[in-house]
Amino acid sequence: MSGRRRDDRVSRRYGERFGRVIGRKARRRIAARRGQPGVWFWLGMLGLIGWSVAIPTVVGVAVGVWLDRVLSAGFSWTLSLLFVGLAIGVLNAWFWVRQETSAPGGPGQDPPPSYASGAGDGHDH
Q1: What phi, psi does 15 have (nearest 5°)?
Q2: Distance of CA 77 to the CA centre of its chain
Q3: Which CA distances in Å does 21 have to 14, 28, 30?
Q4: 44-72 burial string, b = 16+ CB within 10 Å, else e?
Q5: Across the chain, which distance is largest between two alpha carbons, in Å?
């Protein structure tokens, strides 16, 4: 029986060690989520905003050039649709920025409770 008790002690020791390692990693991940967004987040946001504005603007110009060739009008379709595309792009970028900064766990906000933190699992710790 002493061999079995020794095995139980060894497995319990490894289980406790494993629990400490997992707990340390979970605390580090939660702390990283609570921190301010880094440079890569803002570079990604800048790229998202840029494409959100550029694509509708270029599409507006392309459709405007095509309409100027097909239709004869007293005004420039290209210039008109350039501004329409730009307005749509700016509204689209504004939507994305608002969504990213107001989402739970977004920049400068605490992340929502998760099971890794022990919150919300129904057990008292």
Answers
A1: -65, -40
A2: 37
A3: 10, 11, 14
A4: ebeeebeebbeebbeebbebbeeebeeee
A5: 100
Q: How many CA atoms lie within 13 A of 73 on its CB side?
A: 14
Residue that has been written with the tokens 């766990």 in this structure: 105
Residue 70 structure tokens: 């097909």
pLDDT of the chain along its 125 residues, tens only? 466 666 666 677 777 787 888 888 888 887 777 767 778 888 888 888 889 999 999 999 999 999 999 988 888 999 999 999 999 999 999 988 888 777 665 555 555 555 444 544 444 44
CA distances from 6 to 1, 2, 10, 69 (A): 9, 6, 6, 88
